[in-house]
Each structure stands twice: as structure tokens, then as C-alpha cells.
Amino acid sequence: MWWVVAASVVVGLVAAYLIWTAGRVERLQSRAELAARALDAHLLRRAAAAAVLAERRFGVELYAAARIALDASPDEREAAENDLTRQLRGVQLDPGDPDCGAVIAASRRLALSRQVHTDLVRDARSARSRPLVRLLRMGRGREWPRYFDIDDPTLVVPADVPAA
User: Fold this and answer.
1) pTM value surpassing 0.85
2) How many CA atoms lie within 13 A of 39 on its CB side?
3) DSSP state of 130
4) d(CA 83, CA 123)
């Protein structure tokens, strides 16, 4: 009689662990997808702010890079964003100017969003690569989360210009 109770307890504990693991994989996957959407929104905000800045103060090259980043397909997105980052680094930004301040702030928020996205993708990929999760195919309904590999979008403000 005791062995039936012990077997029931073991089966219950294993089932609870599997349910917890499946829930964790699902939560991490969902959080990684939400972080990807937030990253995309911050990329669009930075590109839009850069386009406005280019229209008002700077030349055609920055505007073209911003428009390409805004219109890029998902496959071309990383290259377009890296090009926009290089163009923004080549421009002398004045934090006192509202348009420049908007680009600087958008770049800072983008850097934070990219770090959060990278952390969540790493955690989701780690959880999905565990042997038990792969064996039971717990993440089969969704694609593997992908990293978004871009240069660090944080812009350096010159030291001689006071920040606003």
C-alpha cells in the first residue's frame, strides 16, 4: 500500500515539475517576443527622430540612412540600423538642440531596449535548449528567438557641450 502512495507522490512531483518547466519556457518565449516588439518600436522612433533631424539640420546622407532604416524589411533591418548608427556618430550633435536631444534620448532608450531583448533571448534560448525541454518538445509551437545584432546605438555627447 505504501508503494502506491509513494509512486503517486513521485508521479505528482514529476508532473508538477514538467508543468512548471513548460510554463517557464512559454513565459520566457513570450517575454522575448514582447522585447522584440519593444526593440522594433525603439528602432522606429530613433529612425524617425534621425529623419527629422536630418531634414532640419543635416544633409542627405543622414536622411537617406534614416529613411532606409524606416523602410527596411526584416532581413535588411540590422544592416540598415548599423548604417544609421554610423551616420549618427559622424554628425556633431548638440544636446541643447531639441531635435538632437530627441535623437540622443531615442538612442539611449534603444540601447536599453536592445540589452533587455538580448538578455531575454539568451534566457529563452537557454531554457529551450535543455534536454528535457527538447525531448518533450515544449517550445514546438514557436520559432527560436533571434538576437538582433547591431552596433551599440548610444551616442557620445561631446565633453565641451553641457548636457541639457
Assistant:
1) no
2) 27
3) S
4) 28
